[in-house]
Amino acid sequence: MVRLLWLAFGGVCVGLAIAGAALPLLPTTPFLLLAVFAFARSSQRLHDWLVDHRHFGPMIRNWREHGGIDRRSKLLAVAAMLVALLVSWAVGVGPRLLLIQALVLGASATFILTRPDGPRRPES
To answer: Could you tell me which residues come within 8 angstroms of residue 66 by beta carbon, excluding any fewer than 6 positions away?
Structure first.
């Protein structure tokens, strides 16, 4: 039963990660990391598939091996946070809520920007 719950959680996380690849305000990498964590506890085959995936695998391995986030992902994440904050301001969110949002997004951006970039990709 527990294995099925981990499997379902991993599947939901992969779905959210895929949505995050298309939607600008939804992150991809955190959901991938959660999916790998869940699949490690439920399905070695799905875990290996995700770690070896052509698009998602490099992000996962960079985090696992170097604690890093590539520069492009950092810039996209911070830009999305800034857009979210600007949209909140534009639609008239109250000052208290806007301040809370700015503090949370600022702390998140600081965490992201202080992670190493990881190894350089070979030129193709």
So the answer is: 116, 118, 119
CA distance 26 to 17: 8
What global pTM score does this model have?
A: 0.70
pLDDT tens track for 78-93: 888 898 899 999 999 9
Residue with tokens 């109250």: 94
Q: Are 109 and 81 in contact (CB under 8 A)?
A: yes
Which H or E run contains 54? none
Mean pLDDT of the chain: 88
Q: Distance between CA atoms of 57 and 50, rounded to whole angstroms? A: 6
Domain map (residue ranges) of the chain: 2-66, 71-113
